[in-house]
Amino acid sequence: MIASFDIGGTSIKYGLINEKGKLIFRDEMPTNQKDGGFAIMNQVIEKVKVFQKDTDIIGVAVSSAGVIDPDHGVVLATTGTIKDYTGLKIKEIIETETNCFTTVENDVNCAALAETVYGDGKPQDFIAMTIGTGIGGAIVSHGHVVHGASYSAGEWGRLIINGKPYEHLASTSSIVRKANEKGLSISSGKELFDLYDQGNELAKEIINEFYFHLSSGIINLVYALNPKLILIGGGISDRGDQFIKELKNALNQILEPYFMDSFEIKLATLKNDSGMLGAYIHHKNKIKELY
């Protein structure tokens, strides 16, 4: 049995995945982010030890926010959401305390890997984008994640659009912040989109600008990478097919027909468990590489 963990800024999802790749148990707990990286490692280690009392745990698979070195299981860079997380040697810490072979991979890379095995159509070549508190990304080629020279390929949120980081313009949190600055009292992207659907003029202005910025970034990716498929996940995907329709309308305003016809853009099919499932796939792949 593999114990799989998906470490995010607000919660840690965890579960057990059997030898057939089926998630047979799942739960989650709040991330102890204020106390820092080592406190979070203690949360993970504690759960592994609980599992070990009743189950034969042969490995630990971790999906984590941040730029991750998957060869050594180290956090290379973060946005600072979790205190003392950069430089954390996740693999070494967990292996020392649990005596379990441990693998670590970036959370969006894990979500993308999950699509290759568990997603609709099991796509093998695509780029992924998650839109929520920030913007994350991944590149998948022939079923494998493309990491780049220093493991940071796919960091779409750091792209510069109109002189600002992409995720400062086109993430859900960015438009919620902008809405409140302009006088709307809301706490979520869903509330803003509800006002948009009701015809609120200020909400329409903010959402239209959001789609302009979002499509601008995607167009740059289309020009640079020439993908045949773009999968979008994260909180924004709760808007469903309406989101894809609105995004395509925005893309059509800027992108030439030849390029618009060169790719598909769809919602990712997996939701909350994609990080854990992808971490499991990465874990199995690492075992094949090593043994």
Describe this structure in words.
This protein has helices at residues 37-54, 90-98, 107-118, 167-170, 172-181, 189-197, 201-225, 241-254, 257-260, 274-290; strands spanning 2-7, 11-17, 23-30, 59-64, 67-69, 74-77, 101-106, 126-131, 135-141, 144-145, 160-161, 164-165, 229-233, 264-267. By secondary structure, the protein is α/β, with parallel strands linked by helices. The protein has 2 domains: 2-106, 2-Layer Sandwich (Nucleotidyltransferase, domain 5), CATH 3.30.420.40; 120-267, ATPase, nucleotide binding domain (Nucleotidyltransferase, domain 5). Strand 1 and strand 2 (11-17) form a beta hairpin. The two termini are 18 Å apart. 41% of the residues are buried.
Name a few traits of the molecule:
10 helices, Nucleotidyltransferase, domain 5, single chain, 23% strand, alpha/beta, 291 residues, five-stranded mixed sheet
Classification by helices and strands: alpha/beta
The major beta sheet can be summarized as:
5 strands, mixed
* Percent helix range: 40-55%
| Sheet with the most strands: spatial strand order | 3-2-1-4-7
User: What would CATH call the architecture of the largest domain?
Assistant: 2-Layer Sandwich
- Note the total helix count: 10
Low-pLDDT stretches: none
Number of domains: 2
**CATH level 4 superfamily of the largest domain:** ATPase, nucleotide binding domain
Q: Estimate the global geometry from the Cα principal axes.
A: globular
Please state the average pLDDT score: 96
Do you know the CATH topology of the largest domain? Nucleotidyltransferase, domain 5
What is the percentage of strand-forming residues? 15-25%
Distance between the termini: 18 Å
Number of strands: 14
What order do the SSEs take from the amino end to the carboxyl end, as H and E?
EEEHEEEHEHEEEEEHHHHEHHEH
